[in-house]
Amino acid sequence: MVDTSSLGLGWEVYVIFRLFVLDQNKDEFLILQDAMGKERRFHVLKLEWGFDQFIPLEEFNDASNGYLVGDTCVFGAEVLVKERNKCKGECLFLAKLTSASNYKHVWKIENFSKLEAKLYESEVFVAGNQKWKIKLYPKGQGVGRGSHISVYLALADLSTITRDSKIYVHFTLRIRDQVLSKHNEKKASTWLSTSSEDWGWSTFVELSYFNKAENGFLMNDVCIVEAEVLRISKAL
Protein backbone atom coordinates (compact mmCIF):
# COMPACT_ATOMS: atom_id res chain seq x y z
CA MET A 1 0.00 0.00 0.00
CA VAL A 2 1.10 3.52 -0.76
CA ASP A 3 -0.22 6.97 0.16
CA THR A 4 -2.15 5.95 3.28
CA SER A 5 -2.30 9.45 4.75
CA SER A 6 -6.00 9.78 3.91
CA LEU A 7 -7.00 6.64 5.84
CA GLY A 8 -6.70 8.14 9.31
CA LEU A 9 -5.22 6.83 12.56
CA GLY A 10 -5.49 3.10 13.19
CA TRP A 11 -6.60 2.14 9.69
CA GLU A 12 -6.90 -1.48 8.54
CA VAL A 13 -7.64 -2.73 5.02
CA TYR A 14 -8.62 -6.35 4.28
CA VAL A 15 -7.73 -7.49 0.77
CA ILE A 16 -7.92 -10.56 -1.45
CA PHE A 17 -5.38 -10.28 -4.26
CA ARG A 18 -3.71 -12.16 -7.09
CA LEU A 19 -0.35 -11.39 -8.68
CA PHE A 20 0.54 -12.52 -12.18
CA VAL A 21 3.22 -12.46 -14.86
CA LEU A 22 2.45 -12.70 -18.58
CA ASP A 23 3.64 -15.55 -20.80
CA GLN A 24 4.14 -13.39 -23.91
CA ASN A 25 4.51 -16.43 -26.17
CA LYS A 26 1.08 -17.87 -25.34
CA ASP A 27 -0.60 -14.64 -24.19
CA GLU A 28 -1.45 -16.39 -20.92
CA PHE A 29 -0.89 -15.43 -17.30
CA LEU A 30 0.93 -17.31 -14.54
CA ILE A 31 -1.20 -16.44 -11.51
CA LEU A 32 -0.31 -16.73 -7.83
CA GLN A 33 -2.89 -16.41 -5.10
CA ASP A 34 -3.10 -17.39 -1.43
CA ALA A 35 -4.72 -20.76 -0.94
CA MET A 36 -8.52 -20.62 -0.81
CA GLY A 37 -8.40 -16.90 -1.61
CA LYS A 38 -7.29 -16.01 1.91
CA GLU A 39 -7.69 -12.34 2.76
CA ARG A 40 -4.74 -10.30 4.05
CA ARG A 41 -4.80 -7.44 6.57
CA PHE A 42 -2.82 -4.33 5.67
CA HIS A 43 -2.07 -1.76 8.39
CA VAL A 44 0.54 0.84 9.30
CA LEU A 45 3.09 -1.80 10.34
CA LYS A 46 2.33 -4.20 7.48
CA LEU A 47 2.19 -2.37 4.16
CA GLU A 48 3.00 -5.27 1.84
CA TRP A 49 2.06 -8.89 1.23
CA GLY A 50 3.31 -11.22 -1.46
CA PHE A 51 5.28 -14.33 -2.30
CA ASP A 52 8.97 -14.88 -1.46
CA GLN A 53 9.20 -17.50 -4.21
CA PHE A 54 6.98 -16.16 -6.98
CA ILE A 55 8.80 -17.90 -9.85
CA PRO A 56 12.22 -19.61 -10.12
CA LEU A 57 14.79 -17.30 -11.76
CA GLU A 58 15.91 -19.99 -14.19
CA GLU A 59 12.34 -20.51 -15.38
CA PHE A 60 11.74 -16.74 -15.60
CA ASN A 61 14.91 -16.08 -17.61
CA ASP A 62 14.28 -18.88 -20.11
CA ALA A 63 12.92 -17.05 -23.18
CA SER A 64 11.07 -20.17 -24.32
CA ASN A 65 8.72 -19.77 -21.34
CA GLY A 66 7.70 -16.32 -22.55
CA TYR A 67 8.05 -14.41 -19.29
CA LEU A 68 11.11 -12.42 -20.42
CA VAL A 69 11.09 -11.56 -24.11
CA GLY A 70 13.30 -8.85 -25.60
CA ASP A 71 14.38 -7.99 -22.02
CA THR A 72 10.76 -7.05 -21.29
CA CYS A 73 8.34 -8.60 -18.80
CA VAL A 74 4.76 -7.84 -17.80
CA PHE A 75 3.56 -8.11 -14.20
CA GLY A 76 0.10 -7.35 -12.88
CA ALA A 77 -2.14 -7.42 -9.84
CA GLU A 78 -5.85 -8.00 -9.26
CA VAL A 79 -7.07 -6.57 -5.96
CA LEU A 80 -10.40 -6.95 -4.17
CA VAL A 81 -10.78 -4.67 -1.15
CA LYS A 82 -13.18 -6.38 1.24
CA GLU A 83 -13.26 -4.06 4.22
CA ARG A 84 -11.77 -0.90 5.68
CA ASN A 85 -11.76 -0.29 9.40
CA LYS A 86 -10.59 2.38 11.78
CA CYS A 87 -9.44 0.96 15.10
CA LYS A 88 -10.59 2.86 18.16
CA GLY A 89 -9.36 2.99 21.73
CA GLU A 90 -5.85 1.80 21.00
CA CYS A 91 -2.69 3.87 21.13
CA LEU A 92 0.47 2.63 19.43
CA PHE A 93 3.94 3.62 20.58
CA LEU A 94 6.85 2.77 18.32
CA ALA A 95 10.15 1.94 19.98
CA LYS A 96 12.87 2.91 17.51
CA LEU A 97 15.77 0.52 17.24
CA THR A 98 18.92 2.34 16.18
CA SER A 99 20.60 -0.75 14.74
CA ALA A 100 19.23 -4.23 14.18
CA SER A 101 22.64 -5.71 14.95
CA ASN A 102 22.42 -4.29 18.49
CA TYR A 103 19.43 -6.56 19.10
CA LYS A 104 20.79 -9.86 17.90
CA HIS A 105 21.06 -12.48 20.61
CA VAL A 106 23.35 -15.47 20.04
CA TRP A 107 22.67 -18.65 21.99
CA LYS A 108 25.39 -21.31 21.89
CA ILE A 109 24.05 -24.72 22.93
CA GLU A 110 26.73 -27.28 23.80
CA ASN A 111 26.32 -31.06 24.10
CA PHE A 112 23.23 -30.78 21.93
CA SER A 113 22.94 -34.52 21.26
CA LYS A 114 22.72 -35.13 25.01
CA LEU A 115 19.75 -32.81 25.60
CA GLU A 116 17.00 -34.82 27.28
CA ALA A 117 14.48 -32.25 28.51
CA LYS A 118 11.45 -31.35 26.40
CA LEU A 119 12.13 -27.59 26.48
CA TYR A 120 15.23 -25.38 26.81
CA GLU A 121 15.32 -21.61 27.16
CA SER A 122 18.09 -19.11 26.41
CA GLU A 123 19.28 -16.51 28.85
CA VAL A 124 17.11 -13.40 28.95
CA PHE A 125 18.13 -10.51 26.68
CA VAL A 126 16.79 -6.99 26.21
CA ALA A 127 15.62 -5.42 22.94
CA GLY A 128 13.58 -2.24 22.70
CA ASN A 129 13.29 -2.01 26.51
CA GLN A 130 11.56 -5.39 26.53
CA LYS A 131 12.93 -8.66 27.95
CA TRP A 132 13.00 -11.67 25.61
CA LYS A 133 14.13 -15.28 25.48
CA ILE A 134 14.40 -18.05 22.91
CA LYS A 135 12.54 -21.31 23.51
CA LEU A 136 13.78 -24.48 21.84
CA TYR A 137 12.26 -27.96 21.75
CA PRO A 138 15.09 -30.27 20.57
CA LYS A 139 12.64 -33.08 19.72
CA GLY A 140 9.89 -30.77 18.51
CA GLN A 141 6.39 -30.11 19.73
CA GLY A 142 2.93 -29.99 18.20
CA VAL A 143 2.90 -31.16 14.58
CA GLY A 144 6.71 -31.18 14.64
CA ARG A 145 7.04 -33.55 17.59
CA GLY A 146 9.54 -36.30 16.90
CA SER A 147 10.44 -35.05 13.42
CA HIS A 148 11.54 -31.41 13.77
CA ILE A 149 13.25 -28.94 16.08
CA SER A 150 10.79 -26.30 17.29
CA VAL A 151 11.99 -22.72 17.97
CA TYR A 152 10.10 -19.72 19.38
CA LEU A 153 10.71 -16.12 20.46
CA ALA A 154 9.03 -15.38 23.79
CA LEU A 155 8.38 -12.51 26.16
CA ALA A 156 10.49 -13.10 29.27
CA ASP A 157 8.82 -10.76 31.76
CA LEU A 158 5.02 -10.56 31.56
CA SER A 159 4.88 -8.32 34.64
CA THR A 160 5.81 -5.34 32.43
CA ILE A 161 2.70 -5.83 30.26
CA THR A 162 -0.83 -5.04 31.38
CA ARG A 163 -3.63 -7.46 30.61
CA ASP A 164 -5.04 -5.29 27.80
CA SER A 165 -1.76 -4.21 26.21
CA LYS A 166 0.21 -6.05 23.54
CA ILE A 167 3.63 -5.97 21.91
CA TYR A 168 4.18 -5.97 18.15
CA VAL A 169 7.49 -7.48 17.09
CA HIS A 170 9.19 -8.13 13.75
CA PHE A 171 11.94 -10.71 14.19
CA THR A 172 14.14 -13.39 12.66
CA LEU A 173 15.05 -16.73 14.22
CA ARG A 174 17.91 -18.75 12.76
CA ILE A 175 20.06 -21.80 13.35
CA ARG A 176 23.53 -21.06 12.02
CA ASP A 177 25.28 -23.14 9.38
CA GLN A 178 28.77 -23.15 10.92
CA VAL A 179 30.42 -24.39 7.72
CA LEU A 180 29.01 -22.57 4.67
CA SER A 181 26.88 -19.89 6.40
CA LYS A 182 23.75 -21.18 4.65
CA HIS A 183 21.73 -20.57 7.77
CA ASN A 184 18.24 -21.94 8.37
CA GLU A 185 16.14 -18.91 9.27
CA LYS A 186 12.54 -17.78 9.40
CA LYS A 187 10.99 -14.32 9.81
CA ALA A 188 7.72 -13.24 11.38
CA SER A 189 5.71 -10.19 12.42
CA THR A 190 3.19 -10.71 15.19
CA TRP A 191 1.46 -9.34 18.28
CA LEU A 192 2.36 -10.82 21.67
CA SER A 193 0.54 -10.38 24.98
CA THR A 194 0.03 -11.95 28.39
CA SER A 195 -2.29 -14.51 26.78
CA SER A 196 -0.02 -15.14 23.79
CA GLU A 197 3.55 -14.81 25.00
CA ASP A 198 5.52 -16.51 22.22
CA TRP A 199 5.59 -17.05 18.48
CA GLY A 200 7.62 -19.37 16.31
CA TRP A 201 7.60 -22.60 14.36
CA SER A 202 6.92 -26.15 15.54
CA THR A 203 8.53 -27.35 12.28
CA PHE A 204 11.51 -24.97 12.27
CA VAL A 205 13.95 -27.52 10.83
CA GLU A 206 13.63 -31.23 10.15
CA LEU A 207 15.73 -33.33 12.53
CA SER A 208 17.15 -35.55 9.78
CA TYR A 209 18.30 -32.46 7.87
CA PHE A 210 19.66 -30.79 11.01
CA ASN A 211 21.74 -33.83 11.95
CA LYS A 212 23.57 -34.14 8.62
CA ALA A 213 27.15 -32.98 9.26
CA GLU A 214 27.50 -31.42 5.80
CA ASN A 215 24.72 -28.93 6.62
CA GLY A 216 26.83 -27.41 9.40
CA PHE A 217 24.08 -26.94 12.01
CA LEU A 218 25.71 -29.23 14.56
CA MET A 219 29.50 -28.98 14.83
CA ASN A 220 31.42 -30.64 17.67
CA ASP A 221 27.98 -31.19 19.23
CA VAL A 222 27.42 -27.42 19.35
CA CYS A 223 24.35 -25.68 17.89
CA ILE A 224 24.14 -21.89 17.53
CA VAL A 225 20.68 -20.28 17.63
CA GLU A 226 20.10 -16.57 17.00
CA ALA A 227 17.21 -14.20 17.55
CA GLU A 228 17.29 -10.88 15.72
CA VAL A 229 14.66 -8.35 16.79
CA LEU A 230 14.13 -5.83 14.01
CA ARG A 231 11.19 -3.74 15.19
CA ILE A 232 9.11 -3.41 18.35
CA SER A 233 6.03 -1.39 19.20
CA LYS A 234 3.52 -1.43 22.03
CA ALA A 235 -0.24 -0.96 21.97
CA LEU A 236 -1.89 0.15 25.18
From TrEMBL:
Q: Report TM segments.
A: none
Ranges for domain MATH: 1-79, 102-229
**Superkingdom assignment:** Eukaryota
Concerning Pfam families, the annotation shows: MATH_2 (PF22486)
Query: Cross-referenced InterPro entries, in alphabetical order?
Result: MATH/TRAF_dom, TRAF-like
What's the name of the protein?
MATH domain-containing protein
Question: Could you tell me which species this protein originates from?
Answer: Citrus sinensis (Sweet orange)
